[in-house]
Inverse folding.
């Protein structure tokens, strides 16, 4: 990798120069300590970029096979047609068991590579079963500085659906007609209620209508048993039937995304801040486990501290690094 | 808690005295250090018990709503009718989002409380999203010393399905007709192939037949893309249609469990040893994170060491404690 200067890199990312964005994401995926130091510096420089502040971070999740990638392509075309730019990071869990690349979904995405306003990147989650890729958080922040809309696409129900909440402003859950498991997860309160629900592959009107009715029922049950999303009750999760292959429902989905982004305006800062705190805690716990948390006076104390110090301008990666240093120093002092 | 003497406690657990088993499980769920020391001692004493060696540990998993609890009840009746004793530990993830107790499934279990040969216990997974309860491993080992058959029942697809592999001799995946998500997970290789597949709620013959055919297709695809279970190819995963409410297919399922237990005979020791190694690694990583692993010379070295020292008779909990001590000592020495 050629040597680079973070402020200069940041400038180029903010100008959405594809080569610079791509280079930044290479850095994000590089787990070596010096690369991560540079990521921390880069993210620090990107933090106040106009798009990073005002842009829209959309999490798109759902079980395998529901057509998320085709839907993402359709969203990208519609967003570009409205004159906005878009970055996509797809988290690919296919390598979990086989270690190979089952990139079936990726193949179904088709984009115009000469479009400077559209950027697509895949992140592998090899070895990180059930969770978002380590790099996903940083990748979203890089793309958020460069593009008006960032879509993070992730497969699965359960853990990754929970993680995506900490990265995205708006969580879209995609299912297809007859996805009984998702309904069950929603009803049982195992899955948080998403901000927008999409029934994709709704080519057959009758099936689609029944699926939407089922989901309405599941949402009612979920509310009744006390499960909830992040809203305070004043946002009603829209259920949108789409057919990504036929292009129906896409404009309605974009409108719903815009409506939710607008709805978030007063609380967006707080929501993102909470996501950053969670990111710091996740990083620190991954590195030092329960013992790290208890040594630094427990989760409540650590959370309060992360809130305070991120608020004072520290980046998540550098804060985690500093907490790590303190933990090790504390252990040494007590010898 | 009354003071107790581990060898004496162990005797009583091995004699399957319900009060003693119950007390042991209270200890298992108690996270305080002295309780966990006593668990380590107890598990050490139980390790060689005839049932702990020869009994059958069955993991029963699947998405919510497929009727696992009713099925577990039916299995219990059939196992008892064959003159064998059974212990059940149900891992309940319902508290993940709401923190409340959605014990819907539990209510559907009905057992004769005066039956001395049947023991049922629920473990909450509050705060341990996506994974088996911390205590589940120990709980299974306690029950395994007391009963001929131990069933660990867990809800979910994904992480908990992966974890259960390390605890159970035989993994049974339960779905209902039309569980498209599970098929997709199997096909995509995200989910390991279980030892036995059960299509529950197979009251309608036509639906059940189609579900079995779908699963056969999914298994073929899964094999084709290189996903695999723990077998070396000489065990063909049976697909069994059951109706727990009507009691059909249960005898066939018990026969399949027995057949798999018999099939395992030559490799059971190795399989369980591998599960114990994984347990030590999980415990250690939960406590000290990536930094703990790298400080103790990386995952490969740590795995080899756990294999060796468990083989020499150390218990997982005490080994983890010792590794933890070494980690902290190493950090102090390098100051």
């Amino acid at each position: 990798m050629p040597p680079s200067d973070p402020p200069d890199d940041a400038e180029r990312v903010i100008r959405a120069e594809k080569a610079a964005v791509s280079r930044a994401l290479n850095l994000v995926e590089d787990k070596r300590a010096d690369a991560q130091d540079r990521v921390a510096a880069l993210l620090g420089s990107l933090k106040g970029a106009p798009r990073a502040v005002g842009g829209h971070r959309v999490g798109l999740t759902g079980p395998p096979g529901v057509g998320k990638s085709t839907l993402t392509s359709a969203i990208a075309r519609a967003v570009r047609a409205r004159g906005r730019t878009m970055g996509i990071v797809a988290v690919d869990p296919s390598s979990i068991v086989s270690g190979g690349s089952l990139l079936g979904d990726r193949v179904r995405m088709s984009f115009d590579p000469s479009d400077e306003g559209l950027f697509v990147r895949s992140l592998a989650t090899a070895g990180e079963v059930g969770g978002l890729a380590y790099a996903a958080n940083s990748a979203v922040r890089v793309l958020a500085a460069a593009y008006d809309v960032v879509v993070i696409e992730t497969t699965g129900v359960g853990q990754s659906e929970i993680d995506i909440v900490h990265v995205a402003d708006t969580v879209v859950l995609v299912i297809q007609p007859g996805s009984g498991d998702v309904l069950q997860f929603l009803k049982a309160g195992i899955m948080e209620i998403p901000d927008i629900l999409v029934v994709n592959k709704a080519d057959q009107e009758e099936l689609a209508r029944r699926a939407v009715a089922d989901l309405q029922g599941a949402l009612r049950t979920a509310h009744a048993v006390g499960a909830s999303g992040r809203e305070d009750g004043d946002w009603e999760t829209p259920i949108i039937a789409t057919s990504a292959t036929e292009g129906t429902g896409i404009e309605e989905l974009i409108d719903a995304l815009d409506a939710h982004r607008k709805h978030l305006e007063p609380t967006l800062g707080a929501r993102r801040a909470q996501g950053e705190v969670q990111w710091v805690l996740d990083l620190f716990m991954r590195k030092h486990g329960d013992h790290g948390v208890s040594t630094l006076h427990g989760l409540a104390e650590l959370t309060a501290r992360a809130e305070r110090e991120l608020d004072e301008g520290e980046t998540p990666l550098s804060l985690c690094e500093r907490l790590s240093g303190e933990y090790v120093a504390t252990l040494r002092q007590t010898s």
